[in-house]
Automatic annotation (TrEMBL):
InterPro entries: DUF2804
Lineage: Bacteria, Pseudomonadati, Pseudomonadota, Gammaproteobacteria, Pseudomonadales
Name of the protein described by the UniProt record: DUF2804 domain-containing protein
Pfam family, one: DUF2804
Length: 337
């Protein structure tokens, strides 16, 4: 699985690792459709599984995390009103990941269940239903009911890479999924704007070193335009997750993406530029969210900025494709886990 697949075929998925937990060479690489069974063997206490959802609309954003870290289950919800700046968040832990149901394939149902936070994603052919409930998030009840489409033509970045120290990671980055439905926060209802509301999934399964750092940026816009850029975990693999979408088709970038912050001010703009001019973007944050779940000496310190991307992309035929205020985010994580 070393290059983009031209078409999806219903072949049995490629195993990620063998029965002793060793990464299989045939799984390493990337494709435009999920092709790997991410069942993890061995490495007790070191296995990391997560599904992270981000929904963007012109008026609001929603971030949901479901994670199984072997010794700990983690569910989180963050809602941001882009117009008022109001933000609320709730984090919930489950020992030994009780109540956290995460599959080994990216297109399967998953859930996190706790009396204070319930997250559920039910997959159906060509679509999924995302629901979330929290009785108290920032002093108000939260109810989420979203219908998310999976257009047949929409591709994704599916990548398996070795990590330093014998670890490895598999990810499926799915961007630009059309979203409909609503969020109820207290007495206020927020609805998806048709044609301008998108969901993104970050599916991750792997065996990580104790101390880790990574960075990721992403956006989506109407017309099947999207971008995904990352660093911090692929430097020693010779692989890249930097990609652009045009009309739903994914195009892996040939040169690395430089991601630089203009200053240390909390909401300072960021520049994202590729050496071959495939992308030249300015990210302007509107709000930042900090999350640092801790358990004894372990933690995952994440800063995530939400805002707008503007600039120019180079299309598959060399044409200039403008990006004007596309909604997205940029995040950094330092983890000891």
């Amino acid at each position: 699985m070393t290059s983009i697949a031209t078409a999806y075929t219903a072949l049995p998925p490629q195993p990620l690792c063998d029965s002793k937990g060793r990464l299989l060479d045939d799984a390493v690489g990337w494709s435009s459709r999920p092709q790997v069974d991410c069942t993890l063997h061995g490495h007790a206490g070191r296995r990391k599984r997560w599904n992270h959802w981000c929904i963007t609309t012109p008026q609001w954003m929603l971030s949901l995390t479901l994670a199984d870290l072997d010794y700990l289950g983690y569910g989180a919800a963050y809602f941001l009103d882009l117009e008022s700046g109001q933000a609320v968040a709730h984090t919930q832990f489950r020992p030994f990941a009780l109540g956290c149901q995460l599959p080994d394939l990216p297109l399967e149902s998953h859930a996190f269940s706790h009396s204070r936070l319930q997250l559920r994603i039910d997959e159906h052919p060509g679509r999924l239903r995302l629901t979330a409930t929290a009785p108290d998030i920032g002093g108000q009840p939260l109810q989420v009911a979203l219908d998310i489409q999976r257009p047949a033509h929409l591709q994704s970045v599916n990548l398996v890479a070795p990590l330093q120290g014998g670890g490895f990671h598999a990810t499926s980055r799915q961007l630009g999924l059309p979203a409909a439905g609503s969020v109820q926060l207290g007495r206020k209802q927020y609805r998806c704007t048709p044609g301008q509301s998108f969901a993104a999934l970050d599916f991750g399964r792997g065996v990580w070193p104790l101390n880790s750092y990574w960075q990721r940026a992403a956006f989506a816009a109407a017309g099947g335009i999207a971008g995904n850029f990352g660093s911090g975990w692929l430097e020693h693999s010779g692989l890249s997750e930097d990609a652009l979408w045009f009309g739903g088709e994914v195009q892996l970038l040939d040169s690395p993406m430089q991601i630089e912050r203009s200053s240390q001010a909390p909401l300072a703009p960021w520049r994202l530029d590729s050496a071959d001019d495939s992308a030249s973007l300015l990210f302007t944050p509107r709000q930042l969210h900090r999350a640092c779940p801790k358990l004894g000496p372990f933690h995952a310190n994440t800063v995530q900025w939400f805002g707008h991307y503007s600039g120019v992309l180079r299309g598959p035929k060399g044409e200039r494709v403008p990006v004007d205020g596309a909604l997205g985010w940029l995040g950094e994580t330092h983890a000891r886990w």
